Amino acid sequence: MRARDSKFAVELRRARPEDAPAVARLFRDTVRTVNRQDYSDAQIDAWAPYQVDLDDWRQMIETSHFLLAISGGMVVGFASLDGQDYVDQLYVHKDLLRRRIATRLIEEIEREAKRRGAQRLWTQASITAKKFFERQGFVAQQAQRVAHNGQVFENYVMEKRIAVIRR
Q1: Cβ(102)–Cβ(92) under 8 Å?
Q2: How many Å apart are CA 155 and CA 143, to the nearest integer?
Q3: Taking a C-beta distance cutoff of 8 angstroms, is the pair 75, 23 a contact?
Q4: Which of 35, 53, 64, 77 is a good FRET partner for 16, with 20 to 30 A between their CA atoms?
Q5: Are 85 and 121 in contact (CB under 8 A)?
Q6: d(Cα 62, Cα 158) in Å, to the nearest integer?
Q7: pLDDT tens digits, one per residue of 120-129
Q8: Nearest to 33 by CA among 151, 23, 41
């Protein structure tokens, strides 16, 4: 699973529990930079606090189909599929946006969902991520307000119908 960019190659692989520190750091740095355009400082602090629970990240890695995008030995993106059809996480390094890393990750997540027999993918997309998911064929089903760590966030339940792989 390799893709060539004019500046670097990206490889996708399954995450391992020992990847948790790099994943948590990328998540925090990306949210605190990229999502700042759509959410308040208080919301950003609640969403991506500086103190992280690496055990939570390890558990997420172990219990979901969790993929990493790697370039030059560094984690540059990640995505996870929970169950058969829920895209729980999709983040790309704040300095490497618009290089098709997220697209490669979501395409691989979709392939895995099809292998699992899913007829749809769904997610709860941030205001920031909504346009990306729309470009990938997801449709907003509803806007919602979700409480997390004492803050209320607006996001979107989005869905994409997919064709099942027949065995």
Answers
A1: yes
A2: 6
A3: yes
A4: 35
A5: yes
A6: 25
A7: 999 999 999 9
A8: 41
What confidence tens digit (pLDDT) does each residue in 46-100 have?
999 988 899 999 999 999 999 999 999 999 999 999 999 999 999 999 999 989 9
What is residue 5's three-state secondary structure?
coil
Angle at 96 between CA 65 and CA 124, to 5 degrees: 45
Which residues partner with 24 through β-bridges?
none
Beta carbons of 97 and 130 less than 8 angstroms apart: no
Under 8 Å between Cβ of 2 and 9:
yes
- Quick one: tokens of 6? 């004019």
| Contacts of 42 by beta carbon, 8 Å cutoff, 6+ apart | 151
